[in-house]
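step 4 of 6: structure.
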Amino acid sequence: MKIERICTTILKRPVEKKFGGSKYNYDVGGYLLTQVYADDGNIGCATTYFGLIESGMATVRKIIDEELSSVLVGEDPHFVRFLRRKMYSRIEYYGITGVATMAISALDICLWDLVGKAAGVPTAMVLGASRKSVPAYAMVGWYFQDGLKGLVESCVNAAEEGFSAVKIKVGRGSLEDDLNRIKAIQSELGTSFRIMVDANCAFDEMEALRRGNAYQDLGVYWFEEPLQPFYKEGHRRLREKLRIPIAIGENFYTKYQFYDAIREGCVDIVQPDNRRAGGVTEWMEIGAIAEVSGLKVASHLGGSGNVNVMCALDNVIYLECEGIKRDNEMLRYPLKMVDGQILLPDVPGMGNELKADFIEKYKVC
Ligand SMILES: [Mg+2]
């Protein structure tokens, strides 16, 4: 099999109801769709999502179109690690993290999609499957314009979809506001309904300690991104002083950054984002580093591509979802959930193709 050409497409999808994270607001979601065409007729796909960054899609597209395409065209996609080395060496002067890694990640996902499609099985089977489904939680606890009412409604909808855990944003307001958000959900769904909190790096160390103590008293399951991602000493001290598990990783690029954070004792739950971490190849290695360190892995973001990787790891605990309905509006092969677990898509490759009418509707260029 040989790669013939690579095509990139920018999509923009407005959100129906504006919402915010701990430090930002969303009103549009931008996607870069990358498609790698092979001479056996298969197309490897990856979708790189950008929340706020208007120019993110065009930046990554430029790196793929003008630098990395020529590295891959004519090559056999099965040589994923060989091609990863070649790609890193080509983009060295962009810097080997950040948007450069996002470009490599997209292409790595496409390569694994092609490898699965060529074998006629889900990519998880080629990677070495460990399971056929992954427990999922719903990231639906945004800051909504209608406040607690919108928050509780969103979590109740997730529970009705079959989720038994939700993640909510904290840190935009006071500690009291955070606690009100947690208690409002608990009073509607019960204290056994699992809640995770995500601060999007909003705190300094003292404030993270103060709030972390309060979250753990309410039985919150994990405390995500309390501090700036690279502040390792702070994470390590926080982890020593709190019982609540610290979850980080969505802002890390490559296994080397994960290795540093894990070795220095900064993290309990390791959260790779396959758009940033380096794609499937890198994520499998991060999973192994976490495993030998006795740590669990939860994805940042969801989708079928992540399900395939997570079904090939032993130490995963949770797939993140924005809600099945929202994910399935864009996916050609809809995600299915049974007993709170997302099933491995029963299609060759990553199962991550977008619907043709979704692409048509939101395509910008
Ligand atoms: Mg997060």
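step 5 of 6: annotate
 - Residues 3-120+356-362 form a domain with the Enolase-like; domain 1 fold (CATH 3.30.390.10).
 - Residues 198, 224-225, 250 surround magnesium ion (CB under 6 Å).
step 6 of 6: archive
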